[in-house]
Amino acid sequence: MNPIYSMTKLNSSFSHLKQRYLFALIAEKTKSFDSTSLINLGIGDIARPLSKPIADAISLAVYEMTCVDTLKGYGPETGYGFLKQAILKNEYGALGFEEFEIFISEGINPEITVFHELFHTPMKVALQDPSYPAYYDTQVIAGTISEKTPPLFFHANEEGAFFPKIPEEKVDLIYLCSPNNPTGCAFTKEQLKEWVDYAIKNEAIILFDGAYEAFIQSKNTPRSIFEIEGAKQCAVEFRSFSKSAGFTGLRCGYVVCPKEISFHEMNLNRLWTQYKTIRSNGVSYPIQKGAEKTFDKEVQHLLQEQVKSYMSQTYFLKNCLEELGLKTFGGIDAPFIFLKTPHGYNSWEFFDFLLNEFQIVTIPGSGFGKNGEGFVRLSGLITPSVFERAKIKFETMVKRGLYETHH
Fold first, then answer.
1. Distance between CA 153 and CA 31 in Å, rounded?
2. Fewest C-beta in 10 Å: which of 76, 116, 231, 255?
3. Is the full-model pTM beyond 0.90?
4. Domain 3-49+298-399 belongs to what topology?
5. pLDDT at 406
6. In terms of Cα–Cα distance, which of 222, 226, 280 is closest to 253?
7. Residue 403: C-alpha distances to residues 244, 256, 350, 397, 407 (Å)
8. Can you spell out the DSSP letters for 43-112?
9. In 156-207, alpha helices (H)
10. Residue of 296, 382, 299 whose CA lies nearest to 335
11. Degrees to nearest 5, angle at CA 364 with 363 and 366
């Protein structure tokens, strides 16, 4: 081999990742089972079909591509104006935002996992424990997190009802998700105000994952961090159509980056705009037309009924478990329930037990962080028939004395 090429090296940060990504490992464990026999309360994918008006809007947009007068090529890197205007009219205009502060994306994950590239390194990253594993993994890949530069974990545990405490030390970048994945718990306005105040005081930036805001039921739970005074000075919000409108297989979301955030004469909104023009050719036109359709009054009613159905199954599942004497968290403002494992079982052992004995698929809480150990995550993104099957299985498990109840 040519000596010049022999010096080429791969990114060694990958060696610091866990051997297998959480959801890939679960897929591996379940593939030997007949899918029709499984009761999937695991990965939170959609269970209901796409609303027909949305499908019609996408189909019409695809048909436009067949006509020379209406075809669309490359679109705007940050998204079409028609979708941005729909978002402003229905959600962010009342909060004082403008079109250039809205950025259309292919969902939250591709955006929130690269946003750190706008910041100087080294920097101190703060992560909730437990939290969505991609936050941590992408920071490891970037080299921001390592043995020499560990993150600051703000711990959320059973004793504190899975609400994290404000850190005492200064950090630069904070990942928050509310309602939280995996615990299903959501910040009140007062709790979120404490985080905003902390970020302003310490000149930190909050990356706020609002993937499940459509499921919020509590009156004192904000749907947007920008409902909190001062948030425009310190926060960037990430939203998605995935769960609220059934877009997990279509891919569309958006980032709200306020114009107010600047450091040393460098404006964050302008940097993100520049980043998007370099790294993206935009989201497909038909998908953006489908996303625009979600804001029609007729479609809003259909989507609200879908959310209502998902949350009903979540409530039924949570109530069923608690009536059986099992301890749960969440399930009020998000379609996720954090279920405590029986005495003597860690998260993976209980996952294996439920899978092998009852064909119930869950997500081990330890996959979301150390504080998730001793729990499994259940998803309420299911149909009524799946709930009924799960209910029978859990009742059988408890009747047989296979679960030591917690009081």
1. 33
2. 76
3. yes
4. Aspartate Aminotransferase, domain 1 (3.90.1150)
5. 43
6. 280
7. 34, 45, 10, 7, 12
8. S----SPPPHHHHHHHHHHHHHTTSTTT---S--TT--HHHHHHHIIIIIGGGT--GGGEEEES-SHHHH
9. 189-202
10. 382
11. 140
Nearest to 368 by CA among 22, 124, 14: 22
Task: Give the 3-state DSSP-derived string for 331-390, with helices as H, strands as E and coil as C.
Answer: CCCCCEEEEECCCCCCHHHHHHHHHHHHCEECEEHHHHCHHHCCEEEEECCCCHHHHHHH
Q: How far apart are CA 400 and CA 407, in angstroms?
A: 18
Q: What is the Cα–Cα distance from 117 to 138, expressed in whole angstroms?
A: 11
- Kindly report the length of the chain: 407
Q: For residues 250 and 253, what is the distance between their CA atoms, to the nearest angstrom?
A: 10
State the pLDDT at residue 190.
Answer: 98
In angstroms, what CA-CA distances link 103 with 55, 83, 134, 276?
Answer: 23, 10, 21, 9
Please report, for the chain, the start and end positions of each structural domain, with discontinuous segments joined by +: 3-49+298-399, 53-297
The correct answer on CATH 1.10.10.10 for the domain covering 53-297 is: no
Tokens 């890197």: give the residue: 77
pLDDT along the chain (407 residues), means of 10: 68 84 88 92 92 98 97 96 99 98 98 96 93 94 87 93 93 97 97 98 98 97 98 99 96 98 95 97 98 98 97 98 97 98 94 97 96 98 97 95 59
Return the structure tokens found at 284: 């497909």
